[in-house]
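Budget justification note: compute hours in this period were largely spent on complex prediction jobs such as the one shown. Inputs:
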Amino acid sequence: MVVNGKSYRTVWMEGSSVLMIEQNLLPFRFSVFEAKDYRQTCLVIKTMITRGAGAIGAAAGFAMAQAFLEAGRHAKPEEFVLNAKTEIEATRPTARNLFYAVERVYAAGKESAAKAVEEAQALADKDAADSQAIGEFGNELIASGCRIQTHCNAGWLAFVDYGTALSPVYKAHESGKGIFVYVDETRPRSQGARLTAWELNNAGVPHVIVPDTAGAWLMSQGKTDMMIVGADRIAANGDTANKIGTFEKAIVAKTFGIPFYVAAPTSTFDPACKTGADIVIEERSDEEVLYQTGPDEYGNLVRVRVASPGSHALNPAFDVTPADYITGIITEKGIIRPEKNEITKLIAR
Amino acid sequence: MVVNGKSYRTVWMEGSSVLMIEQNLLPFRFSVFEAKDYRQTCLVIKTMITRGAGAIGAAAGFAMAQAFLEAGRHAKPEEFVLNAKTEIEATRPTARNLFYAVERVYAAGKESAAKAVEEAQALADKDAADSQAIGEFGNELIASGCRIQTHCNAGWLAFVDYGTALSPVYKAHESGKGIFVYVDETRPRSQGARLTAWELNNAGVPHVIVPDTAGAWLMSQGKTDMMIVGADRIAANGDTANKIGTFEKAIVAKTFGIPFYVAAPTSTFDPACKTGADIVIEERSDEEVLYQTGPDEYGNLVRVRVASPGSHALNPAFDVTPADYITGIITEKGIIRPEKNEITKLIAR
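Corresponding output:
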């Protein structure tokens, strides 16, 4: 994606460093963060300097490759690599892509560290190519003048490039369909208001931010034609874990008969999870709900408390939308219904 | 309600001044604001220094009384009062209590300014008494150990005292039922996280703040036993206007079979509105979505931007929940089903 006239991926590797766009500072600062070893990359994932299903996967793959590069300097390289693998996997428990990438790079690294780097790079390239294919399939669903609602950020910032939920949006916009996007704010981390709005602004796509409370109002007024969201993990039966609030929007969309699509590469499918009940939901610190950071009138980033002092908050990071609330899943291999047989066939393709 | 050892109402009149708790500064500062004439009181309502269905109604009644007190100093007192009435009614279009109070005080003021003040005072007293009665009826619905979810703030800060949705909560807490409250954050103005959490903290009621995105997660996990919300206007058929996000929670509650109650005095019913389609929904400035104010680490109140620069937002202040999503309406005269016949009978009582 082009920012300030220069082409960027969300996360990439140079030598033994992993570089990524600093997403905690967006939309107020655009800068690149360098993680010099696998531990720094783990911290990057944990603190959400990089976030989003595909970007986490790519960063985790690169981290695993970094561990192989570092292993030679340690007395017990195999033990070092295995410990690193455990550490990387512990950073974010819900994202399927993370575990997928770590396994692939770990297997390749048994041959050589160079092979690990190569595999991590190939996975990042595949993520970008898959996102592009998702955009093409998804674009076929979008009519001229379509008003699309999305939740959280499943744009290029959440993947290596293009994104999943936003990839069809970009394709539709580029093909001159005159689309409009309703961007859910997506509390508590406001990835919609901060990242999706920033992406759409950067790409010139007409949009407006919608408070999470206004979903039923919006849909009941007939303003939303379709909803597209991303996914962090999809169970064998189609139940889908995604950013907290996705399930609520799916319920409301179903109430008003609005098509509700999930966009995700097949690496997001987890055949080992039979249903959504098997998906581990990450709970994060309640400070994400109680505080917000943004620029004051002088442009200084300030963290302010936005809730009553002395009160605590719940902060589940994801929820699981049951398959029967999902109209279809847009993948790099085509669009399928969220059913066990279709998913099994898709993965086997 | 007792704060820092002293008993307060939310809004009251002393001489020709209207005094109220400064709600824009809560929960970070507790202070009293004095509005010396009806125009200042209008500004107070418009800028939400005082807010909430009942408190708006009482403040508007007091403002109308102020206008009668001021009218004697003007060449055309009748014209002055009529203009004031129009100005007061224009402050917040959705709140039924506002129009109800203004009409009542306007009628009384035709006799004398003293009668106008008396009527405004009587309306405020009635608001407090009604809230207390709502608490007693509502408490009958609450089982021991009940986990109650609420949206926005319909506590004593939204009325003259006690509140509506929170009045049963206080009664149940005082009667030792060991209840727990899930407080919806309620973006964009976060009246849940700011005001309801502050009230519950002040009264020692166990609670936790829940992001608006986490409603379906919470209810699907069986954590919520019942939901109680307030109302700004109830149509003749039971359709209910309340804070944006109420309709969405009602849809989710219905999906999971969770009882959904509205608590409101009969002054909230508007027989002139046949259905929710006749209710005017106020749209507010998008700055309420794009910025948040709170104390920084030094305790200074700072306004920060929380959304991507260059993007705009929608900000409907209310939505309408259709009657068939509402289990019952808790009023000062008893609990009714949200049906035309029951509502007509209730108002006639």
